[in-house]
Structure prediction request, 352 residues.
Amino acid sequence: MREILISGALALFISLFGTPVLIRFLARRGYGQIIRDDGPSSHHTKRGTPTMGGLIIIFAAATGYFVAHAVSQNAVTTSVLLVLGLMASLGFVGFLDDWLKVSRQKSLGLNAKQKILGQVLFAAIFAYLGIRFPDGDGLTPISLNLSTVRDTSLELGVVLVIIWVVLMVTATSNGVNLTDGLDGLATGAAVMTFIAYILIGVWQFGQSCAISPGDNCYLVRDPLDLAVLSAALAGACAGFLWWNASPAKIFMGDTGSLALGGALAGIATSLRIELLLIPLGGLFVIISASVILQVAYFKITGGKRIFKMAPLQHHFELMGWGEVTIVLRFWIIAGLCVALGLGLFYAQWVTQ
Prediction:
């Protein structure tokens, strides 16, 4: 438990006080956000705001996690190392996209195929390595079975597990990327989900088959250490949110959104709560669905639209809602989704 507190507090401290340093560094070099001309007109005032803030989130979370282990002198686990690798690699894909945008001074970085290819490649590597490295009990970081609120009896096999994890990672990372359109929106929603992961990881550890054997125990390889990483990520996002809240002094960019999406999917997979990610990340799901519906309806009807603009948050902007109002109301939705996810998780344990 001490590791959870240390990792979260240190990541919060680094992110809170390190972000202004990053802001000044990026501003001096002119690494500012490029705004699309077809977006809401209110966003034009954000042109030039420093981007690539995801760098400080990744650094703060990793530093908080490793320092906590140095203090406690506990060994780092394979599960967390794999999630950190996934987060860093997707952050690298996002960094390339952000770098191309600011260096070209156009809202065009990597094209869609290049970005998806990078996400698929690193997700597949994560999945392949995740089904290896069994511990003393034979548990691997990623299960070969489909999981809902825990592992089910449905065994997918190696190939299907890799495909499934790739779909989860790409969907979640793009979902966070789509949500990151208003100041603080994606960051605040991510904090709530990471806090839920802390609670789930601690609960799974306390009710693990090694500690509390029985019909209702959990077979998860490294739940407590995943909770430590989740605390570091929650702290890093919370510190960054101080500067990312409206009016934002810095944006996380694709560097942050892809990295956070990878971390969200990676931890859900490693905690063996894959389908529970749908309610826990409910806001990301809703916003992603708005884009899918908009595109599908546009093609089917030959040019008609359901929303004034997608993703969904921009629809409400064009309806006249203020940015802060949208963010606060969407945070409420995110909180309710997280509460639903935690309720489903606990209800399954109680009724088992």
Remarks:
- The beta strands are 145-147, 151-155.
